[in-house]
């Protein structure tokens, strides 16, 4: 295996070659920094980025989620003009159905906030839901919110897109290079330590998706982010699953979502009852449970064969919100070091989180989103957040993730 030699110095070092880390390195280089180095212990996109479902939803439950989702959506739309390649974003429309009066009240309140921020989200009455989504069993909902501009992308193509972006922008990518710690002096970072040596640098950005807590702990930084199994499956093709009949749907009550894929249906789910830990295998019992719920809502899927099924490790934070802010050691800011996590929404928020993290690293703030409340200082010593949990998220485990090295493999 040929390893590229690392430079002795760099203007910035980014740790992690997933969606957040790669786009962050690209944005740092595009900002005018001469030497940006990205280190990845495996290969670009080998982790969660290549195993995602590719959902890009702007209908977030908080202002932060809406702004990050919308910035990312617009970035995906402009990629081809900027890079000559794109992540395959497909506008499909996204429906969030309501099954109870409580769902309706919460959805209408969210919609008002989303429209205030400029999204084209509209309310659908029950008959309208049935008309826009003929593949779904009729008469089940009390209505729902719908945004025609939401869509999905191809995760493998996204990895190709950011690999191309890194190459053409001149970011030095060092794969099979492990981050081992930070060099510091007087409360400021002076470099990144790796398995190939130390790179002197005044700026370091720590990413890592489900492994961010482990990465940060090597630098003495505690990040309450964890990893948990997430399962995705794709059915065999069926005429009733033509994309023209099938907006994307998120059944919040069950934590189940679906979208078109290869003339069939891609659906994903997480089990909030299982302990955190890396995905070692597919949970057939829980998959069967989710298939039953899917068949209730989309009857044609009952009895359809599955073309692909996989388990991925997805990251999460206690409040289901991203982390964007300076590193803290014993409550004190380590100047020059920024921590970035998309909180399980790498495809959805990834470019926005990456750009905001690059901005924070360079200037301390960002025009993408107000990051002042999204830093590590929002968590207490037990890892609990002072922010309310984003209500539009997969049903991740409740409470603060366990410390690195103590995760249980389900």
Describe the secondary-structure layout.
Layout: E1 12-15, H1 19-30, E2 36-40, E3 55-56, H2 63-83, E4 90-91, E5 94-97, H3 101-116, E6 121-124, H4 126-132, E7 144-147, E8 151-152, H5 155-169, E9 172-175, E10 179-185, E11 188-194, E12 197-200, E13 204-206, H6 212-217, E14 226-235, E15 248-251, E16 256-261, E17 264-269, H7 284-297, E18 306-316, E19 323-329, E20 332-341, H8 346-363
Parallel strand pairs: 1-2, 1-13, 2-9, 5-15, 13-20
Antiparallel strand pairs: 3-8, 4-8, 5-7, 6-7, 10-11, 11-12, 14-17, 14-18, 15-16, 16-17, 19-20
Topology, number of strands = 20
Categorize the overall geometry.
globular
Instruction: Please count the helical segments.
Output: 8
Task: Provide the spatial order of strands within the biggest beta sheet.
Answer: 6-7-5-15-16-17-14-18
Helix fraction, binned, reads 25-40%
- Could you give me the name of the CATH homologous superfamily of the largest domain? FAD/NAD(P)-binding domain
* CATH level 1 class label of the largest domain: Alpha Beta
Overall structural domain count: 2
Strand content: 25-35%
- Provide the CATH architecture of the largest domain: 3-Layer(bba) Sandwich
Give me the secondary-structure category.
Answer: alpha+beta
